[in-house]
Design goal:
Elements (H helix, E strand, L loop, with lengths): L7 E2 L9 H4 E11 L3 E10 L4 E12 L2 E4 L11 H14 L4
């Protein structure tokens, strides 16, 4: 696996004091990032089920930092072939069935 295909570590992504209560971030890929919005595909392990999955996160920059935003977003500017490739890579890398 080339370096460009290596996911960023889970600690790279925004979280708050409650983030790890429900799901530990394992690692992922940025999809889009600006000064105000950040989207990423992130492999997580649900702490109450010991189950791994890939989630799509969207954060919004607030005066107190990055906060999870609603996932009601336009996606017409995204390359879904590239998203599919990265989801497959995350599933292989983190052994997600």
């Amino acid at each position: 696996m080339s370096e460009i295909d290596q996911p960023m570590p889970g600690s790279y992504f925004p979280k708050n004091e409650n983030s790890d209560v429900y799901a530990k971030r394992l690692g992922g890929f940025d999809i889009y990032k600006s000064k105000t919005f950040w989207m990423a595909l992130v492999a997580v392990e649900k702490t109450n089920m010991n189950k791994r999955t890939v989630k799509w996160f969207r954060w919004k920059m607030k005066p107190i930092g990055w906060k999870t935003d609603y996932c009601n977003m336009s996606v017409d500017y995204l390359d879904f072939d590239e998203l599919k490739r990265k989801i497959i890579l995350l599933k292989e890398f983190y052994n997600i069935k």
